[in-house]
Amino acid sequence: MNEGHHTEQYNKLAAYRKELLRSNPGFYSRDQNNDGWQILTAVGVDANNGMYPIAFAIAEVENQEIWTWFLEYLIGDLKTVNDRSYAFITDKQKGLGNAIAYLFPGAEHRHCIRHLYNNFKTKHAGAHMAGEFEYQVTGGGTIGSKHAVDLGRHLCTCRRWQLSGIPCVHAICALRMRKIGKPVEYPIAPPL
């Protein structure tokens, strides 16, 4: 187990790389001469919802070229045949979405709600007055359902937001309505 300050650990990366190359024939390392290193990771989820590392790389930047390189090695190591059996949940890193779409055209790709939420909180920081985040959203089509949405308390009368922790289509319409200042029709959501 590595202990100590992160700077000390960072300074050990070159020695760690050298040992990996020596002790693992076939291990690939791309030389980098930059102090702004980024750690790229691929993590899996097992049947018990446990997470485990699949692959990692240390790169000088995160861009489409580097992510494509990383994913190409992941494809080779996993011996992927059917890209439709993979799902990617990512933050909104530049280039990663394009690399996934290029190399795994049939895979599911979603953005991590925690990252989206933190970005939203940063962009819309500050307190709000009571009622400022409350909306009534009316659906289009022949059904025309109505739902009350409270963006501040993360509530919707459809209860999807409360059950999943992910904003429902009504909440998303309320967010868009708040941003553009006029009502937005939403597509009819499938039943739970």
Automatic annotation (TrEMBL):
<dbReference type="Pfam" id="PF04434">
    <property type="entry name" value="SWIM"/>
</dbReference>
<dbReference type="Pfam" id="PF10551">
    <property type="entry name" value="MULE"/>
</dbReference>
<dbReference type="GO" id="GO:0008270">
    <property type="term" value="F:zinc ion binding"/>
</dbReference>
<feature type="domain" description="SWIM-type">
    <location>
        <begin position="147"/>
        <end position="179"/>
    </location>
</feature>
<dbReference type="InterPro" id="IPR007527">
    <property type="entry name" value="Znf_SWIM"/>
</dbReference>
<dbReference type="InterPro" id="IPR018289">
    <property type="entry name" value="MULE_transposase_dom"/>
</dbReference>
<keyword id="KW-0862">Zinc</keyword>
<protein>
    <recommendedName>
        <fullName>SWIM-type domain-containing protein</fullName>
    </recommendedName>
</protein>
<dbReference type="InterPro" id="IPR006564">
    <property type="entry name" value="Znf_PMZ"/>
</dbReference>
<keyword id="KW-0479">Metal-binding</keyword>
<keyword id="KW-0863">Zinc-finger</keyword>
